[in-house]
Write a structure and sequence with these properties.
The structure holds two protein chains of two kinds.
Chain A: H1 4-30, H2 39-46, H3 52-65, H4 71-79, H5 86-97, H6 102-109, H7 114-146, H8 156-160, H9 170-186, H10 197-225, H11 229-239, H12 255-272, H13 274-282, H14 289-306, H15 308-318, H16 329-336, H17 340-381, H18 389-414, H19 423-432, H20 435-443, H21 449-474, H22 481-484, H23 506-528, H24 533-543, E1 556-558, H25 564-575, H26 577-588, H27 604-619, H28 621-634, E2 639-641, H29 645-648, H30 657-671, H31 676-691, E3 695-702, E4 707-714, H32 718-721, E5 726-727, H33 733-740, E6 744-746, H34 755-764, E7 768-776, E8 779-788, H35 797-843, E9 854-861, E10 868-876, E11 879-887, H36 892-908, H37 915-933, E12 937-945, E13 950-956, E14 962-964, E15 971-973, E16 992-995, E17 1001-1005, H38 1007-1010, H39 1021-1032, H40 1037-1052, E18 1061-1068
Antiparallel strand pairs in A: 1-2, 3-4, 3-8, 4-5, 6-7, 7-8, 9-18, 10-11, 11-12, 12-13, 13-16, 14-15, 14-17, 17-18
Helix pairs in contact in A: 1-10, 2-10, 2-14, 3-15, 3-17, 4-12, 6-7, 7-9, 7-17, 7-18, 7-19, 7-21, 9-17, 9-18, 10-14, 10-15, 10-16, 10-17, 11-15, 12-13, 12-19, 13-17, 15-16, 16-17, 17-18, 17-28, 21-23, 25-26, 25-27, 27-28, 30-31, 30-35, 31-35, 35-36, 36-37, 39-40
Chain B: E1 3-8, E2 11-16, E3 20-21, H1 26-38, E4 43-47, E5 53-54, H2 56-71, E6 75-79, H3 83-92, E7 99-101, H4 104-110
Parallel strand pairs in B: 2-4, 3-5, 4-6, 6-7
Antiparallel strand pairs in B: 1-2
Chain lengths: ~1050, ~110
């Protein structure tokens, strides 16, 4: 017997090593010298596939049922060759789309469908969590075996503290430790595409340890207990000739099917078990690592399997043919021969195998639970919190703990029953169900979300029916009759012989029927239903990834587009402010931005995509799409096509080549970027020459005159021209076309019933004609007309289709031209604002005055639209003048007036005797300019005399500065009689003075801070400003400003103020001597 | 912005039917007033009773109207100021410049 302390201490030392390695890897990553981004480490992390089920179970299986343990490794080995094109494609897509889990991948491929992600998550968690139970069982069982404790027993704690509750057993403690470790290295931050290097380093280390341990025990058994391979095999065949079948591939019917099934299932499992997908795809740092993994991983598995048979046969010999504990031969053989340290090494190896699997599985599952189950609910609840990233992180942590403990409860419930043993293969079968959705999605554009969802649901239903139900029967929870006679006596529904298919073993039977229903529904519904448009574009992005051309984003723009900062704020809400800023900084990189930090118009859609991708990395693609769409629609923006010629033009497939070429020419003209007039001319030319009309005309509605004015024409004589305009009514055919917004044509002009039109037609000798409305967003803006003087009956249905399309193109050209005009106008406005802002910022002092005994700080945060704040200091010891002002309006004019005021003050203040005089002279000086510009200025002028410790001040309608006296809790407000500048010439400004002693605090501010509004239209207000000062009164001037600003920002729930915010704080403090 | 208008002989009474008179809508008011002046309507009463909040641009629009009316020998008077709006006028001392009445009737009587 090995002392409990010895096992416990070894385990704890090992755990500490893992934590240290994980921590070291995290640090290295932070320093940019990753140890995990390495092809060999990558291959080792893939070996998380070999869990304790295979570590202990392979030998058990070899000892009881023979060679078929190999299939679990043959499958992955065989599938490795496909990785270079198949896995690489998945990785490339995942990196581009910021995919974070297999559920995310499938949901993302099928139009970022939310419910599909939910389905995959539910199935993954339900199907694979029991597998965790198996791992916990292996650790607990081997621990107890090693310490010779009774089975399912007490942990070492029980010996030390007997009174702890009974449910705290070894597995419980292991589960707690694993949860903590996963939270520490798997849920430190939210962005799952920032790979978990600490976790992966731990898993790679565990892979090395389990391989070394297994090789060690293998070499010990083969060469220590026996005399090499030949000796073991020789002894075995001599002693147990009846067990020879263990070394042969059975020839009886059906075994081929089982071998195939097992191999196929493990091929799928290595790709689609959530933990494998996570290790292979999400944690991959460079897809070139696959090249190494393709040989290194099979080599690893080969080494791990080399000694399976010797150990199994050696075990049978050592234990005299008893195979009831074959699963733990690996451990019991060294124990039986008294090799305690080897036994402990084996235990540590098994522990590694189990722990690696549990950790990765729980992290992968928790990511899926957070993104695909919790996020949709959170989004629906519409939380008003400004930053929910910490909430999301906590949900992820809770999910990790829940998944592990769900496994633990499975273990407690099923621990001793036989049902647990098959869980490994059952979860392999569950992973296999993801194959059609994933493989089909990668190579078949037509595959859509309906087919996938129904396929998955069918597959999993049959999976439950054919595998879980028999397991429950084995466990005695369901009557045996369900298997033998079928449920309710329906023989064709027997779970292991569905539809009378009774010639296969359980696994092949289940594989056949699950895939039959899964693939069948997937194909049938994908073919029968049409994919949504977002699905089509996702499908193309996934399927065509290798030959992927950058999508042409410049074809769309966002109306009422959010600004850069709004996108950043949106991101901060979900991933935290720091991460959002880092993300945006990396995005902006060398992109074209102007000095104000805004992006050009055509960058906004890219930014939207980027934001969506960044969010997708932490909340999943489906949720990210919903967030962005909701956000945009909430602010009334939508993506629109600037022009998407063939998108709006639908043409029947029967259209002739000439017609297509006309359309193409027209589209070419529209997209040429020429001015509107020449685009119209080109389209009319096409119509006139290609179809030999005698007259073609474009009339556009003029709002002012309320008539349809002839704008461009071909072949119209001057006589016609003089009365070509039409009124908006139904008396003429053209008017009717416009009013009814539909095509009006006459193949025989004798047959029309409008007298006015008839008259025109007679006069011009027109035989047939057609008018089509020109529309923008469905509303008519004009009419396209064509006339023939010689032919009747030329307007076929097909031609009318083409004709309508031409009219649509004219509409597009019209809209483009107008949008361009609006864009130019908007950008000119922006430019003006920016000039104004740079003038304003230029006016502000670039540093604080340094005066003994005075602690002074100031801030001015310009807003985008309104206000024009300004503050300044004039130092002429012992006087310090402080001026704070606000110009109404925020354009170049306002900025220039402010510059004028500043220049005046800087030049004249020294000569003028008092604050009062300065305001008076300034008012007279500025009055005319302000009146002309229809602006005014509010200003507070204050002089502090440090010798007298006194202030004197005058006010021109500005917000009252506050004084907080030393030790007082109430504020004094400074105000004097006067008037805002620029209203009337003769204003009597009053001047007052008062002492300002050591310890007193003075704050000057503009209305921006007290008028900061939150979503409920409540204002920050004087009271909150005062309490902010009171709270921070003991801090330095700069800290008072900083804390006040962050209080105001918190209050309004966003960073940006609607109006300029300016604060100046002055503290009289004799201890400060700069 | 929504402004309702009533004419009482030579006097035009406007009511700002908005809760806020700020940078977003003050320019419209400015333009509307200019249109009235061009039509020769220079005696104006502005009822601000629905207005809860006014900022410096709102004041600017009123000041501009006031100056234009005065230069055309007319007048622009205000009525129905809510507390917060009133305090804004007091802060800027514009209540010394504008004639302010409790309601339209009093303002009408003063012309």
């Amino acid at each position: 017997m090995i002392a409990l302390q010895q096992i416990s201490i070894t385990t704890i030392v090992y755990l500490t090593t893992i934590v240290a390695v994980a921590y070291y890897a995290t640090r290295r990553r932070e320093q940019g010298r990753s140890i995990v981004a390495n092809p060999h480490v990558y291959s080792l992390t893939l070996a998380v596939y070999c869990s304790s089920w295979t570590y202990y179970g392979s030998v058990g299986r070899a000892a009881t049922s023979g060679l078929d343990f190999l299939t679990i490794y043959l499958g992955p080995t065989l599938v490795c060759f496909s990785w270079w094109f198949f896995l690489r494609k998945i990785i490339l897509i995942s990196k581009k789309e910021n995919i974070v889990s297999i559920a995310d991948f499938i949901s993302s491929r099928y139009g970022k469908s939310n419910y599909l992600g939910m389905i995959v998550t539910l199935f993954a968690v339900l199907g694979i969590v029991p597998y965790i139970a198996l791992q916990l069982k292996a650790i607990a069982y081997t621990f107890n075996l090693l310490g010779e404790l009774p089975e399912v027993s007490s942990s070492p704690l029980h010996e030390l503290i007997p009174q702890i509750p009974h449910f705290i057993d070894t597995a419980f403690i292991v589960a707690i430790f694993l949860s903590l470790f996963c939270i520490l290295f798997g849920a430190m931050r939210l962005d799952s595409t920032e790979r978990h290097e600490g976790l992966m380093a731990a898993i790679a280390l565990e892979s090395i340890v389990k391989l070394i341990a297994f090789l060690a025990v293998g070499i010990f058994v083969t060469y220590g207990m026996f005399n090499g391979f030949t000796d073991i095999f020789g002894q075995f065949t001599n002693l147990y000739p009846e067990k020879e079948h263990l070394l042969l591939i059975p020839s009886e019917c059906g075994s081929g099917a089982r071998w195939f099934t097992m191999t196929f299932m493990s091929m799928m499992a290595i790709m689609f078990l959530p933990r494998q997908f996570h290790a292979m795809v999400i944690e991959n740092s460079d897809h070139h690592h696959i090249r190494t993994a393709m040989w290194a991983f099979p080599a690893y598995m080969f080494l791990l399997n080399l000694f399976v048979l010797p150990i199994a046969l050696g075990g049978i010999i050592t234990f005299n043919g008893d195979t009831s504990l074959a699963d733990y031969f690996v451990l019991s053989m060294p124990l039986a021969s008294g090799q305690q340290s080897l036994a402990i090494l084996v235990f540590i190896g098994g522990f590694s195998a189990a722990a690696g699997m549990v950790m990765l599985e729980s992290v992968a599952s928790s990511t899926m639970i957070l993104n695909n189950l919790a996020m949709p609910i959170i989004l629906r609840c519409n939380l008003k919190k400004s930053d929910i990233s910490s909430l999301l992180l906590n949900i992820k942590r809770i999910a990790i703990v829940s998944v592990i403990f769900l496994g633990y409860f499975y273990y407690r419930t099923l621990g001793t029953s036989e049902a647990l043993i098959n869980i490994g293969l059952i979860s392999f079968m569950a992973a296999t169900q993801f194959a059609p959705a994933l493989l089909g999605g990668l190579y078949w554009e037509r595959a859509n979300h309906r087919g996938t969802a129904i396929g998955l649901i069918m597959g999993f239903f049959v999976w439950i029916y054919t595998l879980i139900i028999p397991t429950f029967v084995d466990a005695g929870w369901l009557p045996l009759s369900v298997i033998l006679e079928g449920p309710f006596g329906l023989e064709w529904l027997r779970p292991t012989a569905l539809f009378y298919l009774n010639s296969l073993d359980m696994w092949s039977h289940s594989l056949f029927w699950t895939l039959f229903f899964n693939v069948g529904s997937f194909l049938a519904f994908s073919i029968a239903t049409t994919p949504t448009s977002s699905e089509v574009s996702q499908a193309q992005r996934f399927v065509q990834v290798a030959t992927w051309k950058e999508p042409q984003h410049q074809h769309t723009r966002i109306s009422k587009a959010p600004t850069l900062m709004e996108f950043v704020n949106l991101m901060s809400k979900f991933i935290g402010e720091k991460q959002a800023n880092t993300a945006i900084a990396s995005y902006l990189g060398d992109r074209e931005i102007d000095e104000k930090g805004s992006l050009s118009e055509h960058e906004i859609p890219n930014l939207k995509l980027f934001t969506e991708k960044t969010l997708a990395a932490s909340v999943g693609a489906a949720a990210a799409r919903i967030i962005i769409e909701n956000y945009l629609s909430a602010r009334g923006s939508k993506m629109e096509d600037v022009f998407n010629i063939f998108g709006t033009v639908s043409l029947s497939r029967k259209a002739s080549r000439e017609q297509l070429s006309v359309l193409y020419e027209a589209a070419h003209a529209v997209s040429s970027g020429a001015d509107l007039g020449s685009i119209f001319e080109s389209i009319l030319d096409l119509l006139y020459h290609q179809f030999r009309f005698d007259l073609c005309a474009i009339r556009i509605y003029n709002e002012e005159t309320n008539i349809l004015e002839l704008r461009n024409f071909r072949g119209i004589d001057t006589e016609f021209l003089s009365h070509a305009n039409r009124e908006i009514n139904e008396e003429t055919c053209i008017g009717t076309t416009y009013v009814l917004n539909k095509v009006i044509l006459a193949n025989d002009s004798d047959c029309i019933d409008k007298p006015l039109s008839m008259e025109i037609i007679r006069r011009e000798g027109i035989k047939s004609f057609a008018h089509a409305p020109i529309t923008v967003e469905g509303q008519p803006i004009g009419v396209l007309s064509s006339y023939s003087r010689y032919a009747k009956g030329i307007y076929t249905d097909e031609f009318i289709e083409l004709y309508k399309n031409l009219a649509a193109q004219i509409g597009i050209a019209w809209r483009n031209a107008n949008q361009t005009a609006q864009l130019i106008k908007a950008s000119e406005h922006e430019k003006e604002l920016r000039i104004a802002e740079s003038i304003q910022l230029g006016l502000l002092p670039d540093k604080m005055p340094q005066l003994p005994g005075v602690d002074i700080a100031a801030i001015c945060v310009p807003a985008k639209q309104v206000g024009g704040d300004y503050y300044d200091f004039i130092v002429q010891p012992p006087n310090l003048d402080i001026v704070i002002a606000d110009v109404s309006g925020h354009n170049i004019g306002a900025a220039l007036l402010m510059a004028e005021a500043r220049t005046f003050i800087q030049a004249r203040a020294q000569q003028l005797p008092s604050s009062q005089a300065i305001l008076d002279v300034l008012n007279r000086f500025m009055h005319d300019d302000l009146t002309k510009a229809e602006l005014f200025i509010t200003m507070f002028y204050l002089q502090y005399n440090s010798d007298k410790q006194q202030i004197s001040y005058a006010n021109a309608g500005h917000n009252h500065p506050l004084i907080l006296r030393k030790g007082s809790k109430t504020f004094e407000e400074l105000d004097t009689e006067g008037l805002i500048l620029g209203i009337i010439n003769d204003v009597t400004f009053e001047q007052r003075h008062c002492p300002l002693n050591t310890g007193d605090l003075l704050m000057l501010y503009t209305d921006g801070i007290i008028e900061a509004e939150n979503n409920l239209e409540e204002m920050f207000g004087m009271e909150q400003l005062k309490s902010a000062i009171l709270e921070n009164a003991d801090l330095s001037a700069q800290e008072i400003i900083d804390n006040t600003m962050s209080l105001a920002r918190m209050f309004q729930g966003r960073r940006h103020f609607n109006d300029d915010v300016t604060i100046v704080v002055l503290k009289i403090d004799n201890t400060i001597n700069p | 912005m929504i402004v309702s208008m009533e004419e009482h002989g030579k006097i035009v009474a406007l009511t700002i039917q908005e809760e806020r008179l700020d940078a977003h809508n003050s320019n419209e008011l400015k333009v509307q007033l200019l249109n009235l002046f061009e039509e020769g309507k220079v005696n104006i009463i502005i009822d601000l009773s629905p207005v809860r909040f006014i900022d410096s641009s709102g004041l600017g629009a009123l000041v501009s109207g006031f100056k234009n009316a005065s230069s055309r020998d007319g007048g622009l008077k205000l009525c129905g100021l809510q507390t917060q709006v009133k305090s804004m006028f007091e802060l800027t001392r514009l209540h010394r410049v504008f004639e302010i009445f409790p309601a339209t009737e009093e303002a009408l009587a003063s012309f």
